[in-house]
Amino acid sequence: MAVILSRKEKKELINYLKERYELKNFDFTFDFLKSGKERVWVIPPEFNKINLEKLKIEFVGSYFGSYDDEKFRLSVEASQIIGPSAKKNVVLLNEENLNKWVRGENLKDFDSNNLTKGYVLIKNKNDFYGSGKYTGNIILNMLAKNRRIKD
Amino acid sequence: MKKENIISKQFKDYFEELLQEEAEEFFEWSLKPLGSCIRVNTLKIKEKELIQRLEEKNWKLKKISFAPNGYKVIKKPMPIGKTIEHVLGYFYVQESASMIPSIVLNPKKHSIVLDMAAAPGSKTTSIAQIMMNTGIIIANEPEMNRLRVLRSNIQRMGIINTIITRMDGRSFKKIPQKFNYVLVDAPCTASGTVRRNLHIPKMWSVKAVEKLSKLQKQLILSGFESLEQNGTLVYSTCSVSVEENEEVINFLLEKKECARVEKINLKLKKHEPVLEWKNKEYDKSIKNALRILPQDNDSEGFFVCKIKKVG
Ligand SMILES: C[S@@+](CC[C@H](N)C(=O)[O-])C[C@H]1O[C@@H](n2cnc3c(N)ncnc32)[C@H](O)[C@@H]1O
């Protein structure tokens, strides 16, 4: 069963993301839906136009991320939405690390300036590849299996 | 593999009767390998930027004349699924003829759209792109496994304006929500796609055509009934048999007086739709539909028809 994120929950999530990634000039214009305890979805902005009677709905909008013990993990798409406005906790990967990341490997050797423990956004050039968990020395790869490159 | 081993007798007999002196060319083209095409996902990246990026990585691409954002892949340095840009959702692999239905539907921004048979999502994702992620698309798919692929494609392309439903398309006529646009990209025998699936002719049968034709008629009727006044429906299949195409449109025109076939203005090669078949004459306005054979544009075979619900 999915429910719309309450005003309080939404505010908390936005404040966390703004603080964690130091988001500058970013407006969260969309609302969120929560399914189960963890998974959060962006609701289509014009959702209210639809009469839902007799529709057998399976999914709505786009997967944004999940709550977990490190607060909140962003999907690849969410990282692409907020990434360009993020000022901290963004790790810039070189080509070698990028190749590891898209194959699902953890990262050991990277520039950890500007990172604090917890989720960090993964970036190469101007592209964002989701988020990984920075433990203080490695970044745990959380890229969904269907977004990895298989050799 | 030898032609005789691929083109089954039933397939051969049917298309010889339909295409006559052009049948041989159809069989020949149906056996030619088909290269890949991609559609740039302008919701995530500028077209120029992606093309430049891929060309720097030794891709060779050729613009498809009738499809905005569509490119034929002439050369690629690695399998498409292994490219970073694919993982990022910067493009979608889609056959050029399959790009046509969404281009013909051409929904306005902020519209309410039904994509009745949506998986794996080639058309849902291109419709969302045309609408620039505004409005709502109900992307429907009854089969769970296919629905999962639909979901992951919608996600990868960064689309936020969809609601995915799991219903039989025939039941949309009963729902209270009406739509400005409906796409019925119907389940079909896929006789236009032999170039991609050489096993199709072996599995193809007149019986399967007849069975699907019945379903297609119910689907188009359901789609049409769920259209708003002045709404637009596009019916398409990747099949080239008459019963799955012209016959289905004719059925709708007989049932619904307010259905009008509209002209499609696209610059591509095509065949005349069939207006007479098995002693039956079809409505003349069906000539406005697009019947595309593989040899026309070096693509798959496709049928596309645009219908308006008039007052
Ligand atoms: C030609 S495919 C659709 C391709 C899709 N529109 C795209 O562009 O990616 C037809 C789809 O119709 C679905 N289908 C089969 N029976 C159906 C029904 N009764 N109602 C709605 N969809 C149905 C099939 O599972 C299949 O996914």
Summarize the structure.
The complex is a heterodimer of chains A (151) and B (311). Chain A has 151 residues and is α+β, with helices and mostly antiparallel strands. Chain A has helices spanning 7-21, 76-82, 95-101; strands at residues 2-4, 32-35, 39-42, 57-60, 62-68, 71-74, 90-92, 118-124, 127-134, 139-140.
Helix and strand topology:
The complex is a heterodimer of chains A (151) and B (311).
Chain A: E1 2-4, H1 7-21, E2 32-35, E3 39-42, E4 57-60, E5 62-68, E6 71-74, H2 76-82, E7 90-92, H3 95-101, E8 118-124, E9 127-134, E10 139-140
Parallel strand pairs in A: 7-8
Antiparallel strand pairs in A: 1-2, 2-3, 3-5, 5-6, 8-9, 9-10
Chain B: H1 3-6, H2 9-19, H3 23-30, E1 37-40, H4 47-56, E2 60-63, E3 70-75, H5 84-87, E4 91-93, H6 100-105, E5 112-115, H7 122-130, E6 136-140, H8 144-156, E7 162-165, E8 179-185, H9 200-203, H10 206-225, E9 227-237, H11 246-255, E10 259-262, E11 276-277, E12 280-281, E13 290-292, H12 294-297, E14 302-309
Helix pairs in contact in B: 2-3, 10-11
The structure holds S-adenosylmethionine.
What is the CA–CA distance across the termini of chain A?
37 Å
Helical residue percent band of chain B: 25-40%
CATH class identity of the largest domain in chain A? Alpha Beta
How many extended strands of chain B?
14
Main sheet overview of chain B: 8 strands, mixed
User: How many helices of chain A in DSSP terms?
Assistant: 3
Interface with most residues: A-B, 36 and 34 residues
Order of helices and strands of chain B: HHHEHEEHEHEHEHEEHHEHEEEEHE
CATH H-level superfamily of the domain at 96-309 in chain B: Vaccinia Virus protein VP39
| Element order of chain A: H for helix, E for strand | EHEEEEEHEHEEE
Ligands in the structure?
S-adenosylmethionine
Q: Which second-level CATH architecture of the largest domain in chain A applies? A: Roll
Structural class assignment of chain A: alpha+beta
Percent of sequence in beta strands of chain B: 15-25%
Task: Name the helicity range of chain A.
Answer: 10-25%
CATH topology of the domain at 96-309 in chain B: Rossmann fold
Low-confidence stretches of chain A: none
Low-confidence stretches of chain B: none
